Amino acid sequence: MKRGQQIHRCLIVLLAASTAAAARAQSPAAAAADIVASAPVEPPSGFLIGPDDVLSIVFWRNTDMTMQVTVRPDGNISLPLLNDVRAAGLTPVDLRARLIAESKRYFENPNVTVIVHQINSRKVFITGQIVKPGAYALTAPTTVLQLISMAGGLKDFADSRRITIVRRDGAHVVSLAFNYKDIGRNPDQNIDLRPGDTVVVP
């Protein structure tokens, strides 16, 4: 085969590939398939959707409505036709029921799935004499010791006997003591953290 013919054939192959890719990018069904295929996370027990959580809303027979959304600070998500829908404070199952109810104004027997991709609303905080202070996502049950480990451990001059967990309980703020040196004799102090807890290492 002559060199000119080889180049011509390569150009045809490249053009066909780019055309197929463009068609796929423009296809709502392909976009929906990509969203479903991307890895979800398993929400912890009792999980309620909150701001900054990333969700995929899949309308199985109405792929133009299928999209990935981030819950806004006001607790709403935005979808075509439905506009703003309240998501914060709901379980994924409850949000699905709400979307089905609101979609019935436009579609007959809508089939909707809510997929959780990132949990960013459930955070705990650690501050003070710790290697990597800051906010950490609470995507699974996490104890005080586990958070300290995630944050790189205590600094050399940390007062490990006087660590405090600050927790809001309704309208009240409570402080829970944690003695790192006494964990062997008193393991019950190594409690599971709750969203919003702050661990203070003096």
Fold and architecture overview:
- There is one protein chain.
- By secondary structure, the protein is α+β, with helices and mostly antiparallel strands.
- The chain folds into two domains: 27-118, wza like fold (2-Layer Sandwich), CATH 3.30.1950; 123-201, Outer membrane lipoprotein wza fold like, CATH 3.10.560.10.
- Helix content is 26%, strand content 26%.
- It starts with a helix and ends with a strand.
- Residues 10-26 have low confidence and may be disordered.
CATH topology of the largest domain: wza like fold
How helix-rich are the residues, as a percent range? Answer: 25-40%
The CA-CA distance between the termini, in Å, is 77 Å
Along the chain, the helix and strand elements come as HHEEEEHEEEHEEE
How many whole angstroms does the radius of gyration measure? 25 Å
- For the biggest β-sheet, the strand order reads 7-6-10-8-9
> What is the residue-mean pLDDT, rounded to a whole number?
84
Break the fold down into its secondary structure elements and pairings.
Elements: H1 3-26, H2 28-37, E1 54-59, E2 67-70, E3 76-79, E4 83-86, H3 92-103, E5 112-118, E6 123-128, E7 134-137, H4 144-150, E8 163-169, E9 172-178, E10 198-201
Summarize this structure briefly.
It is built from four helices and ten strands.
Primary descriptors:
202 residues, alpha+beta, wza like fold, Outer membrane lipoprotein wza fold like, 2 domains, 3-stranded antiparallel beta sheet
